[in-house]
Amino acid sequence: MTDEEFINYFRLNLNTFTDTAWAPIATDISTWASSYRLSSIVNITIPFDDGGVVTSDYDACCWVFSTGKQPGLFNEVGTYPVSGNRQFGMTTENGVKTFFIHGANRSKNLLGHIVGYGPADELWETTLANVKEFIEAQPQGGQCSINTPDKIRLNWNAIRTQLMSSSPITDITCD
After folding, report:
1. Which fold has domain 3-144?
2. pTM
3. What is the C-alpha to C-alpha distance for residues 128 and 150, in angstroms, rounded to an integer?
4. DSSP H helical segments within the chain, as ranges?
5. What is the pLDDT of residues 108-127, one digit of tens each?
6. Helix, strand, coil: what percent of the chain each, to 5?
7. Tens digit of pLDDT for each residue in 69-101?
């Protein structure tokens, strides 16, 4: 598959790669399935409160889901337990294909603070393992390895304090 073919296959078959149910809302099924998927809303089944994400950016190589809550827009889905963005994509450099998942988010509620990042880390690690399994199962004999993910945990209270001060943003540190 080309990078674009793979990322489209992954996008349209999310449920085979993750252990979470993903489905575009009823009014966005055709938009999500099309080559112009900007603004399509996808519901994600999450324990305690399903989450809604909107396709906020896309290109042939990738797309971005952004969380949100807007009256009237997310009526069919929950409010999502974090605020942030997640990009899914595929690149080729020097003949090496790389599938990636990038994310930046933070918990919005007490439950998210109590649970922490563990369930999300597990979801994305399982997704990468499933992508690897899919690639290696191809008749052409695909080979795949999973890089150690970069996990940077920001101290949001420190960021807020820093942004309210006159100190440079470069003074913000990670946990």
Report:
1. Alpha-D-Glucose-1,6-Bisphosphate; Chain A, domain 4 (3.30.530)
2. 0.81
3. 14
4. 3-12, 14-17, 29-33, 110-115, 118-136, 156-164
5. 766 666 666 777 788 889 99
6. 35, 25, 40
7. 654 555 555 566 678 899 999 999 998 889 999
